[in-house]
Amino acid sequence: MAEIIITNSEDEAGEIYAKCVADLIERKPDAVLGLATGSSPLAAYRQLAKEVKARNLDVSRVRGFALDEYAGLDPAHPQSYRSTITRTVVEPLGLDPDKVRVPNGNLETIKDAGREYDAAIEAAGGVDVQILGIGTDGHIGFNEPGSSLQSGTRIKTLAEQTRIDNARFFDGDIDQVPTHCITQGIGTIMKARQLVLLAFGEGKAEAIKETCEGGISAFCPASALQLHPHATIIVDEAAASKL
Ligand code: GLP
């Protein structure tokens, strides 16, 4: 069963993540961080940048693997997850960009990209701490409802609701939101040694209820966290309101 922490603010939640990751980097300077996009982890990255500075940590050997990427979107596009991870994590933390990988959404090579990505994570010794957001339909990474709980990194079709939710990043125009993605599988995510899922606001309350109290099922991909030996779910009062 995952540990659930209810906090007063995104910053307070971010501090918990930041302390945990800063302690990890102190112990293991070449730590492997699992990174996520979306708005939920932003305060956590800001707090981690503060903590790194306050403790004067050397992050030059820290490695990172992002969860997912849109398929067929130029990595230089401002809304590609490559650009987003660079802007929100690599630059503020001062990580070595060559040590941070994002799945390759190039359509010509995408067929083999998933297997190669999982092999690269394994070769790095696995992810130490994976940060996660959650979609309103309970997805993690881009593993939409119905995804196999054993899945590896692979190409997926985006659910209509996810494209609607993410249209805000594409001038509110759903037609600009890619239809496919490459995402770490639920099986890939579950191999990380520690999982920290962050969720804030009323809109996530139903997904959090299903994740924590529903049956473990592919209908709510995040419910797999119930099976992880070291998973922490950090929410605010609003996201916890249906628990
Ligand atoms: C996208 C990402 C997910 C993220 C979700 C929720 O679909 N692929 O990793 O968890 O959005 O985003 P937000 O945190 O902005 O609500």
UniProtKB/TrEMBL annotation:
Keywords: Allosteric enzyme, Carbohydrate metabolism, Hydrolase. GO terms for cellular component: cytoplasm. The keyword Hydrolase applies. Belongs to the glucosamine/galactosamine-6-phosphate isomerase family. NagB subfamily. InterPro entries: Glc/Gal-6P_isomerase, Glucosamine6P_isomerase, Glucosamine6P_isomerase_CS, NagB/RpiA_transferase-like. GO terms for molecular function: glucosamine-6-phosphate deaminase activity; identical protein binding. One of its GO terms (biological process) is glucosamine catabolic process. The record marks S147, R154, K156, T157 as: Part of the allosteric site. Catalyzes the reversible isomerization-deamination of glucosamine 6-phosphate (GlcN6P) to form fructose 6-phosphate (Fru6P) and ammonium ion. It catalyses: alpha-D-glucosamine 6-phosphate + H2O = beta-D-fructose 6-phosphate + NH4(+). HAMAP family: GlcN6P_deamin. Pathway: Amino-sugar metabolism; N-acetylneuraminate degradation; D-fructose 6-phosphate from N-acetylneuraminate: step 5/5. Residues 12-226 form the Glucosamine/galactosamine-6-phosphate isomerase domain. The active site is at D68 (proton acceptor), D137 (for ring-opening step), H139 (proton acceptor), E144 (for ring-opening step). It holds the Pfam family Glucosamine_iso. Allosterically activated by N-acetylglucosamine 6-phosphate (GlcNAc6P). Its EC number is 3.5.99.6. This is Glucosamine-6-phosphate deaminase.
